[in-house]
Design a protein that fits this description.
Elements lengths: L1 H19 L7 E5 L2 E4 H17 L4 E4 L3 E5 L5 E9 L1 H5 L6 E8 L2 E9 L4 E6 L4 E3 L2 E2 L12 E4 L9 H12 L4 E3 L4 H9 L5 E5 L3 H13 L3 E3 L12 E5 L1 H11 L8 H15 L10
Parallel strand pairs: 3-5, 11-12, 11-13
Antiparallel strand pairs: 1-2, 3-4, 5-6, 6-7, 7-8, 8-9, 9-10, 13-15, 14-15
Length: 288
Amino acid sequence: MINVAVKAARAAGAIINRAALDVESVRVSQKQVNDFVTEVDQASEQLIIETLLGAYPGHAIWAEESGRVHGAQDSDYVWIIDPLDGTTNFIHGLPIYCVSIALAVKGKVEQAVIYDPSRNDLFTATKGRGAYMNNRRIRVAKRTRLQECLISTGFPYRQEDDINTYLRLMGDMMARTAGLRRPGAAALDLAYVAAGFTDGFFELGLQPWDVAAGSLLITEAGGLVGNFSGDANFLEQRECMAANPRIYGQMVTLLGKYSKFASAGDKAAVREAVAELAQTPSPSDAPF
C-alpha cells in the first residue's frame, strides 16, 4: 500500500512541477476569503484518486477538494488526501508545498506519504515500522528545553478566525522559544518535526487531510501528536500540536489553556501522563 501511495504522490508531484514552471498561467479560484484552489489541486487530486482506486477499488477516499465521494463508502480503509498543501505558496511561486496521502484503517492512520515535489523529498511511514525521508530513517529532535527550540506554526487567514486568540497564543510561545516559523504548509511542517528540522509544531483550524499523514510520521519518528490539551484523538478537532515527548509536555502546559476539547480535570490528567512520558527515554534516543 505504501508503494502505491508513493506512486500516486510522485505522479501528482510531476503535475505540480510542470505547472510551477509557468505558475502565472494557472487558473485560480477562491473557496472562501484567502482559501484558494487551482486547477493543479484538482488535477493532482484526480490522478491520486485514480491511482489509489485502480489498485484498491474496495477502498474509500476522503479528499480535500471533492470530499468523501469516492470508492466504497462503508470500507474500513479510507485514504485521506491533500493533493496540494500550501496552495497559497504555490500560486505565489514560493516553493513550500507538498502532496499528502494517508491511509486510515478503522479510523487509525497506518500508512503515510508526504512528498515535496520542489525538492524531491519523500517522507514515508508505516505503522510500527518507523518513519523515513528519502529512505533514510528519521527521528524527532532531542532538545529538552522549550527555550532552545525552533517551533513552526500557522497564522490565521480566514475571516472567522479568532485573531486575538492567535496573538495571545503566539505571544506566549514566542516569549518561551528560540523562534517561531510560519512556512505555510502544515503537512510539511509535521514532516519537518518528524525529521528533526524543527522541534515542534502547533496550529488551530486544520482539517484531517492537513495532518493525517504527518501525525503518523511524528509518532513513528518517536514524537507525540495531539490537540492542545495533549489528547491523541485529535484528527477532526481542528487543533494540532506535535513534538518529542519532553517538549510536548512543556507545550501542553503552555497551550492547554487554549484547547476547546478538555475540561480542567482532563487537561491536568493529560499533563500528568505526558510529564511521565517525558521522564522515560524517547525512541529517538535509541540507536537505529
